[in-house]
Amino acid sequence: MGILEWATSPLGQRVPIHIAWFLIWVALIAGLVFLVVHAIYIRYFAREQEFAPETSPAKIELPARIPRHSLAARLFHWIMAAAIFVLLFTAFLPKLGIKFNWVTYHWIAGTVLTASILFHVIHATFYLDFWSIWPDRFDLEDARKRLQRCLGKSTALPRKFGKYPLENKLYHGVVMLTGLAVILTGIFMMFRVRTIFFPRNPYLFSDMTWGMMYVLHGLAGVGLITLVIVHVYFAIRPEKLPITASMIVGSMSREFYLKEHDPARWAVHGLSSRGDTAND
Ligand code: HEM
User: Fold this and answer.
1) What whole-number distance in Å separates Cα of residue 22 and Cα of residue 2?
2) Taking the model in full, what pTM does it have?
3) Which of 123, 234, 262, 276 fits 129 for a cystine, CB–CB 3.0-4.6 Å?
């Protein structure tokens, strides 16, 4: 049993047509296994998080609520999330036997996702701190320290995080690549169905190229099943709830900010000239 389904083209060529749909179950199970293993690790084996003392001045006046996500950033997040859920359900429910006219809902949600990502790229590049989501030298140094401590070796304590811990930055990178793959292939696949944007043209590419495109779309799509499960799992873990709440209300408490974040690496607006500002 292969991971792709094949067919013979009118020219007699064997071409892939899409992924084998059992991969939906593989992705679901992979996500569930991850969260069970992680939950067991945190409950029974993980050590309490400890951080090195901050490098910033000890006495800084901070407001009771630290701004974290602007209204525009929050609206983007929830519109993108809704589009992804609609895309996942419309794509995979029919493959699991729940039949409905899914293609129209799917390309409409795909268009919403594409538009929201375009907005996000412009917003993040010109209005937010672009570099806050990419790993830096400190993240890598601290990841090494955290790994050594996890293996029971003695080493210096890691610094507190900037706006985003390394794990969030890596997750963002993987979701970005997977999301770009479904979006770019999805835009071309809209030529295979009837939409309001351009006339249908199934002859735009050869059967082999279309096949590869459907395969990439499907692989990235099932990948998103696992990624979404992992994301939702972290969002509802008790110790992460203040971060999740900040994606709704826009801010987090001063106590939580000071517990996990280094004001020198993620500074509240106007209080420091280094690092990102907490309004980003
Ligand atoms: C979470 C993101 C997405 C997932 C999980 C997903 C998944 C899928 C799956 C499994 C199929 C069926 C492909 C096949 O039969 O081989 C499909 C078809 C399709 N997707 Fe997506 N997709 C996503 C995002 C998008 C986006 C962003 C667009 C448009 C920009 C899009 C446009 C399409 C179109 C037009 C089809 C229909 C192709 C046809 O029936 O010939 N998809 N998608």
Assistant:
1) 10
2) 0.92
3) 276
Q: What is the DSSP string of 60-83?
A: ----SEEE-S-HHHHHHHHHHHHH
Amino acid at 230: V
Q: How far apart are CA 183 and CA 179, in angstroms?
A: 6
101 C-beta neighbours (distance < 10 Å), count? 9
23 lines ligand 1 (CB under 6 A): no
- CA dist., res. 19 & res. 9, Å (int): 17
Distant-in-sequence, close-in-space partners of 57: CB < 8 Å, separation ≥ 6 = none
Q: Does the beta carbon of 223 sit less than 6 angstroms from any atom of ligand 1? A: no
Ligand 1 within 6 A of 143 CB? no
What lies within 8 Å, CB to CB, of 212 at 6+ separation is 16
Quick check: 100 and 162 in contact, CB under 8 A? Answer: no
Residue nearest to atom 43 of ligand 1 (CA): 91
> Hey, what amino acid is at 151?
L
How many CB atoms are closer than 10 A to CB 225? 21
Q: Which ligand 1 atom minimizes the distance to the CA of 215?
A: 16
CA atoms of 172 and 168, how far apart (whole Å): 6
Compute the distance from residue 96 Cα to the ligand 1 centre, in Å. 15
Rounded CA gap, 280 and 276, in Å? 7
CA–CA gap between residue 206 and residue 224 (Å, rounded): 27
Contact 71, 251 (CB under 8 A): no
Give residue 279's pLDDT band: very low, low, confident or very high (50, 70, 90). Answer: very low
pLDDT tens sequence across 15-40? 999 999 999 999 999 999 999 999 99
* Contact of 214 with 201, CB cutoff 8 Å: no
